[in-house]
Specification:
The chain is an alpha+beta fold and 147 residues long. The chain has one domain: 2-Layer Sandwich (Yope Regulator, Chain: A), CATH 3.30.1460. It has 3 helices and 6 strands; from the N terminus they run H-E-E-E-E-H-E-E-H. A hairpin with a 5-residue loop joins strand 3 and strand 4. The chain starts with 14 loop residues before the first helix and ends in a 7-residue tail after the last helix. This is Putative bacterial sensory transduction regulator. It holds the Pfam family YbjN. It comes from Corynebacterium mustelae. InterPro entries: Put_sensory_transdc_reg_YbjN.
């Protein structure tokens, strides 16, 4: 009776399925209880599915070598980046110990599931758009990072 293939219809988005996309793209990663982490182009990535409602791609760049004087400019740059319509939310913050970090994060609503093709596209967009944000930031502020 069914003429369609199961993979053509949205299936629940799980960390197991996300892990398959990492494997398909030959990316090194660490599977954790709450998601997947990886280092991509010198930036820390974590992928989670909080409450099974959203597929969240979050990048962090820790120990950003910004001076105290450059911090307000960096925060303004992040705000303008968000207002200009970038995919994801970009931020510059300071931990209690004074360490500066930048983050770029985007989530896809997956309450209805996703096909394999959709999941692969979420993966590509979720990663590439956030990397673009971070790459533009390090270029703008002349920051070198470890690869």
């Amino acid at each position: 009776m069914a003429w369609f293939k199961k993979a053509d219809w949205p299936q629940p988005v799980t960390i197991d399925r996300v892990e398959q996309v990492f494997k398909h793209n030959n990316l090194s990663y660490t599977r954790r209880e709450d998601g997947i982490t990886a280092m991509i182009d010198g930036f820390f990535l974590w992928v989670t599915i909080p409450d099974g409602k959203a597929l969240d791609f979050g990048f962090r760049f820790f120990e950003v070598p910004l001076t105290e004087e450059a911090l307000p400019k960096a925060q303004r740059w992040a705000k303008e980046r968000n207002l200009d319509g970038t995919i994801g939310t970009f931020g510059v913050g300071v931990h209690d110990d004074g360490e500066v970090y930048v983050s770029s994060q985007h989530a896809f609503l997956v309450t209805q599931g996703a096909t394999d093709e959709q999941l692969a596209e979420f993966f590509q967009v979720g990663i590439q758009a956030q990397l673009d944000n971070l790459e533009d930031f390090v270029e703008e502020f002349g920051i070198e990072r470890q690869q």
